[in-house]
Amino acid sequence: MQTVSEGNLDAMTYIFERYNVRLYNFYYQMVKDVAVCEDLTQNVFLKVIKYKHSYKGGKFASWIFKIARNLFYDHYQEQKKTQAFEDIDDVTGELDEETIEKEEEVSHLMRVLNNLNEKDKELIVMNRINGIKYEQIAEIVGSNTTAVKTKIHRIVQKLRTNYFETLA
Amino acid sequence: MNCTDIENKLVDYIDGVLSENETKTINKHIESCSSCKNVFNETNELINAFTNETVAQPTSNLKTSFEEMLAQEKKKQPKVIALQPAKRNSYKSVLQIAASVAILFTGYLLGGYQESQNSQKEIATYQTEQKQLKENMLLAMIDNSSPSTRIKAVNYTEELTTPDTKILEALIDRMHNDSNSNVRLSAAEALSKFTDSELVKTSLIQTLTTEKNPSIQVEVIQILVQIQEKRALDPMKKILEQPEAPDYLKTQVNIGIAQLI
């Protein structure tokens, strides 16, 4: 990243190769929409180039995930605003069927995950699916390691209850 | 460790990040506590479900659009870096400013020099004009009917450093021919300043023979002795032979002769 912030955009390809799947997966767990996820992932790299001068050393993975997270929340807020109108449009049988079909493709775990609030979901996705360590998550979300760890453990407990209750 | 403590440590236990002692304690507890064993099994299954969750692969669209975006950004980049040439430009412009200041300064100096030359020329012309005017005025005054004006004019000539022959001739004329002895004396005194001129020397020598006024004769002798004019010896000796010459004149002539020889 140092080389990118010095203006070498070719190094961006290396960063892309290293992070695109990870970021995509983060988004994919959060938003089950391939197009949206690809858009968001793409935007992360655009932002990295745009803000390359504001990268002041430190762990690059944390920095890029911070960007990813901010983009996700921007997207989430927008989604919320438009949701109200979309809901009215969605009251057609055809669309409902499609939604059900989609639901079936999604694993049981994912369905349980979707019942979590965005903050909890984000933490658990980063930790368990993206495999980011507690310290690094703390860095990304601006908290301390112990708090993040405790929180994730609680979420796991909550998930466990939901997971096995709904499994039957 | 009670059951709640165990439950809180289960994730770390499954992750295998606990110390050997803690792991052993939990191992033992799970064996003996059925409810905790159940929680452990469920948690383990859940965590495994996460690990088994297939890694979603983005479509090739992502890479293609990334490459497009990168290419575009690269195109934009020179614009962003355009600041650097601009920096160099500012360095250049400093030079340019310095150069223009230098040119301005040289211009100022040149102008000043030319101006001073011009004004020097002007001053020179004014000075020559003024000199001409003064000389003309002197020549006019010297012919004035009033002796005092003539004396004034003669005295003015002393101010001239290099009077032209016209002035010298006019002075000599006054020394030889003026009716007023005072004017003749003043003219002689004035001419004593210009003894470099051969014309003045001969005229002074001539005065010794023609002049009859002893005070003027004394003056002229003094001038000629000062410039060590040997040709004055003969006319001086002649004065000694003149019976009507007063004693003080003869004394002066003798002193002069002594100095000249």
Topology readout:
The complex is a heterodimer of chains A (168) and B (261).
Chain A lengths: L1 H4 L5 H20 L3 H17 L9 H30 L3 H13 L2 H7 L3 H12 L4 H8 L3 H23 L1
Helix pairs in contact in A: 2-3, 2-4, 2-7, 3-4, 4-8, 6-9, 7-9, 8-9
Chain B lengths: L2 H13 L4 H13 L1 H19 L7 H22 L1 H60 L4 H11 L7 H13 L3 H11 L6 H13 L3 H13 L6 H9 L5 H14 L1
Q: Can you summarize this structure?
A:
Chain A has 168 residues and is mostly helical.
What does this structure look like?
The complex is a heterodimer of chains A (about 170) and B (about 260). Chain A contains 9 helices and no strands. Chain A folds into 2 domains: about 1-90, Orthogonal Bundle (Rna Polymerase Sigma Factor, Chain: A); about 105-170, Arc Repressor Mutant, subunit A (Orthogonal Bundle), CATH 1.10.10.10. By secondary structure, chain A is mainly α. The longest helix of chain A is centred in the middle third of the chain and has 30 residues, at about 60-90. With about 260 residues, chain B is mainly alpha-helical. Chain B has 3 domains: about 5-50, no CATH class; about 85-160; about 165-260, Leucine-rich Repeat Variant (Alpha Horseshoe). Helix content of chain B is about 80%, strand content about 0%. In chain B, α5 packs antiparallel against α6 (about 145-155), α5 packs parallel to α7 and α9 (about 200-210) runs antiparallel to α10 (about 215-225). At the A-B interface, α2, α3, α6 and α9 of A face α1, α3 and α4 of B.
